[in-house]
Request: fold
Amino acid sequence: MVNKKTIDISTEFLQKKFPETPEIGLILGSGLGVLADEIENAIKIPYQEIPEFPVSTVEGHAGQLVYGTLNGKTVIAMQGRFHFYEGYSLEKVTFPVRVMKKLGVSTLIVTNAAGGINESFEAGDLMLISDHINNMGTNPLIGENDKDLGVRFPDMSEAYSKELRQLAKSVADRLGISIQEGVYVGNTGPSYETPAEVRMLRVFGGDAVGMSTVPEVIVARHSGMKVLGISCISNMAAGILDQPLTHDEVIETTENVKANFLSFVKEIINQL
Ligand code: 6GU
Reply:
């Protein structure tokens, strides 16, 4: 179970640094961290400086929180997230979401790079997440439930807000950006799927597959936040095209859709 005290300690540390309550939280996926560079009057806080935040076990920087304004709204963004495949428990993976909630965030925009399962998709597409399949074999809420954080058995029938999806679709229309919509499958990684696994996930109803997002969204819903999810289809999943998957391709594609992604998310925030 999450220790409320640790949430409070991180939150109080951050509140002292922030002049106002952030209303919108952003989790930025692989290659999509550039959105945080657009935040005005930014206050940047490396994760390792935040007491009780998960510590990076690998060398290099795990990432940072970026607080400030985006289109007039007060936001807090995670530039870099914690992944299950890195060895963090799901409690640690989702800890920043608990802190965002405690800070006052009511709407969470979650982004990721994902592999396309739906054969009508192509690399470079943006996909609104309509729903997800938790294929991680575990759940961040396992353990004793703290009633102050949410109910024991949270409803997941509208994990991704219908209202926010409608708003996102009207924004895409207006900007002339074409978007897909579909079901995101959360796998643990770090190996990519085999072609047989991709066929199985397609039969299961998946449209895209990645290694994140599902735990964070479960915790966001447990804590009563509204969620909008956006996947950048960085590549087609294994076995669809006759080519191997590389992380370089993931980064290269996100580089190419950056401009669309930025204007899309910024305009959604403007409309919130
Ligand atoms: Cl093909 N699979 C998974 N699990 N994650 C990905 C991906 C594929 N492409 C980008 N991220």
Notes: The helical segments are 4-17, 90-103, 162-175, 195-203, 214-222, 247-271.
